[in-house]
């Protein structure tokens, strides 16, 4: 029973590490491409605002 709990805890730690890694990658991507993404969404919202 103890081995099962250790394996379950290990699995949770692995998922947490993967989640942290994904979050770091997303933050880096937003940091690098943030300005370009903001410009794209500004153009889209401007285009939507110009629809009669």
In short, what is this structure?
The chain is mainly alpha-helical and 52 residues long. It contains one helix and no strands. The protein is elongated and about 60 Å long.
Structure commentary:
By secondary structure, the protein is mainly alpha-helical. 92% of the residues lie in helices and 0% in strands. It is built from 1 helix and no strands. It has one helix at residues 2-49. The longest helix is centred in the middle third of the chain and has 48 residues, at 2-49. The chain starts with a helix and ends with a helix. 0% of the residues are buried. The model has no long low-confidence stretch (mean pLDDT 87).
Rg over CA atoms: 21 Å
**Helical residues, percent:** over 70%
Element string (H = helix, E = strand): H
Total strands: the figure is: 0
- In round numbers, the mean pLDDT is 87
Gross morphology is: elongated
State the major sheet: none
What is the terminal separation in angstroms?
A: 67 Å
In the predicted model, the low-confidence regions spanning at least 5 consecutive residues are none
Q: What percent strand? A: under 5%
């Amino acid at each position: 029973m103890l081995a099962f709990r250790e394996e379950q805890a290990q699995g949770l730690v692995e998922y947490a590490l993967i989640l942290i890694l994904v979050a770091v990658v997303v933050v880096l991507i937003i940091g690098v491409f943030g300005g370009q993404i903001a410009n794209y969404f500004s153009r889209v919202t401007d285009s939507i605002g110009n629809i009669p």
